[in-house]
Amino acid sequence: MSRTLLAIRGLETHFPVAQGVVKALDGIDLELRESEMLCVVGESGSGKSAAARSILQILDRPGRVVGGQILLYRYEGDSEVPSETIDLARLDRSSREIQAVRRRDISMIFQEPMSSLSLAHTCGDQIVEAVRLRHADMSKRDAWARAVDLLKQMQLPDPALTAGQYPFQLSGGMRQRVMIAMALASEPRILIADEPTTALDVTTQAEILALLGRLQRSLGLGVIFITHDMGVVANIADRVAVMRRGKVVETGDLASIFDSPQHDYTRMLLASVQRLEQPSDLKVPATAAVPPPSGVVEPLLQVRELSKTFLTRTSLFGGSRQTLKAVDGVSFDVLPGENVGIVGESGSGKSTMARCLVGLYPASSGSMLYRKSDGKSVELVGSTRKGDDPLLREIRMIFQDPFSALNPRMTVGQIVGEPLLLGRVARGRELKERVAELLQLVGLEPKMMERYPHAFSGGQRQRIVIARAISLNPRLIVADEATSALDVSLRAQMLDLMLQLQQRLQLSYVFITHDISNIRYFCDRVVVMHQGKVVESGTVAQILDAPSMPYTQRLIASVPRPYTSKAPPLSH
To answer: Which residue among 245, 337, 443, 487 is buried most deeply as judged by most CB within 10 Å?
Structure first.
């Protein structure tokens, strides 16, 4: 039996609010052993992140630990008996004791590395700072060498180059590797990973998970891995703890949780995952509302040889410059009522292409022929969409992160009503009634329009973003990773909502995602992108069941499957 590194006993964490107290943690028990991967799963709001932050005493105020124990065990050499036991729950968040724990014993990896990395300092300098906090007597030269060595362990292609770069110059996967290197710089015994792969594409996620597994085994780390992705859990966990509403409802080894779950909530989570493995019952074949006499359905959008080039560097005197071709000759069609999925790794050009479609980026070359509601076609490349341009009403976008897409200083009513106001569609009482109708349409109460975005959960904020997107009765919606940050049950709800709105409003979707299960559930056709180009396209069945290109095969093979040996993957 491996040594116990951390024991949580009856932990209670509360957040005082105007209406009373929110019990983020309501008496949870957890235990982490040496060289163990403990996965903590549950939906948004279940208390997973609150548990992680409670351990390190980094809760957002006014949250605080009000009861229970967080026992950290330190050992000398190979001794089985702890040389020291520290109750972290008793330490002040700014005390020297908890700071020493953060430097020496426990490190944390966050979901979004850009929230933890400084944009004003190079990656190497930030890792050096962490190294010298652990080894105060180490010279800066030696600390820099240690930083480069850590980046090398992260299997970055050019560690020395990465050390000299700034975080904004790196891809999402590279930033996450830098964050892991920084976390390991303090040589911890415990690593807490809070949703570290949620925003990554499947191939990068697979690489990060494999990296964490290797580091865990080679360094003997105890890892608390927080996630809502049951597929990830099935691939990495030794033991699993399932959380709901601040409580641990079930714990056990991987096989027992997946093969014979005891709690209804655990069974619901697993059922939600399996549900996304099949096409939605709400999906209907894409057809024109009124079939033309010729019987040929004209595309709503025709994209041909679309390219977008960025200027990435110029010299001081303008003598030299470098360019990056983010989108390189992309072509596809979108039929009326059709959902076209765009998949690919980070940096494949998916989001850049999406921004070209809605006019946020001007395309460098190519054609985007859009058929308007009156049947006339208009070329989007080269057109300027400003003010009350009808195209701004007909083509709308849903962004990946609803929190950053919503103005925190505006009420929900103001946010949803803003397009109506700017488009001179409604004012006064009519505007308020329309906003109430839109909120009801996405499953929110009209009385919520007076609240601000911070008062909503992640799923509710995404509903607000959708309400704003459909406010002007669009015909085409570009959804850029619209469900990637949501847990599995909310993801199914959100996709169902989008499909219901599609039938009611006669919508078409360009659906950009790195989650293959979303594609099968939601889309009619798939376009696979790699390094700015389309490498393969076809129906969902063609691409997911019988991919012809090696890149597509690798992409699909990287998808973590939430099944153990007793519960094999569903056949498609």
So the answer is: 487
Per DSSP bridges, beta strands 395-398 and 476-480 are parallel
| SS3 category, 439 | helix
Long-range contacts for 119-125 (Cβ within 8 Å, ≥24 apart)? 119/166, 119/167, 119/168, 120/166, 121/166, 122/163, 122/164, 122/165, 122/166, 123/151, 123/162, 123/163, 123/164, 123/165, 123/166, 123/167, 123/170, 123/178, 124/148, 124/151, 124/162, 124/163, 124/164
Query: Residue holding tokens 């990946």?
Result: 400
Sign of dihedral through CA atoms 332, 334, 335, 339? Answer: positive
Question: Which token pair is 165?
Answer: 């770069």
Cβ contacts of 16 within 8 Å, gap of 6 or more: 22, 62
Give Cβ neighbours of residue 125 (< 8 Å, ≥ 6 apart): none
- 334 closest CA partner among 507, 516, 76: 507
Buried b (16+ CB within 10 A) or exposed e, 229-254: bbbbbbbbbbbbbbbbebbbbbbbeb
First to last CA, the chain: 41
| Gap between the Cα atoms of 215 and 15, Å rounded | 35
- Which tokens hold the place of 183? 């976390």
In terms of phi and psi (left: phi > 0; alpha: psi -120 to 50; beta: otherwise), the region of 313 is beta
Report how far residue 430's alpha carbon sits from residue 411's, in angstroms, rounded to the nearest whole number. 17
Mean pLDDT over each residue of the chain, to the nearest integer: 85
* 411-436 pLDDT tens trace: 999 999 888 888 777 888 889 999 99
Q: In the predicted model, what is the mean pLDDT of residues 231-240?
A: 88
CATH 3.40.50.300 fits 301-312+324-554, yes or no: yes
CA dist., res. 57 & res. 94, Å (int): 8
Nearest to 421 by CA among 434, 405, 409, 404: 434
Q: How far is CA 429 from CA 4, 319, 433, in A?
A: 62, 58, 6
Burial code (b: 16+ CB inside 10 Å, e: under 16) for 210-223 equals ebbeebbeeeebbb
**Short-list 102, 105, 85, CA closest to 93:** 102
| E strand spans, 209-300 | 222-227, 239-244, 247-253
Distance CA 93, CA 97 (A): 9
Q: Are 453 and 408 in contact (CB under 8 A)?
A: yes
Q: For residues 405 and 397, what is the distance between their CA atoms, to the nearest angstrom?
A: 11
Q: From the CB of residue 479, how many other CB atoms can be counted at a distance below 10 Å?
A: 28
Q: Are 472 and 418 within 8 A, CB to CB?
A: no
Q: pLDDT tens-digit profile of 342-392? A: 998 877 888 899 999 998 889 999 999 999 888 889 999 987 666 566 787
Q: What is the pLDDT of residue 239?
A: 93
Q: What is the pLDDT of residues 267-280, one digit of tens each?
A: 988 888 777 778 88
Distance CA 395, CA 334 (A): 13
Q: Are 487 and 43 in contact (CB under 8 A)?
A: yes
- Reply yes or no: is the peptide bond before residue 390 cis, omega within 30 of 0: no
Q: In what order do the strands lie in the sheet with 247-253?
A: 106-109, 190-194, 222-227, 37-41, 239-244, 247-253
Q: Residue 288 — very low, low, confident or very high, per pLDDT cuts 50/70/90?
A: very low
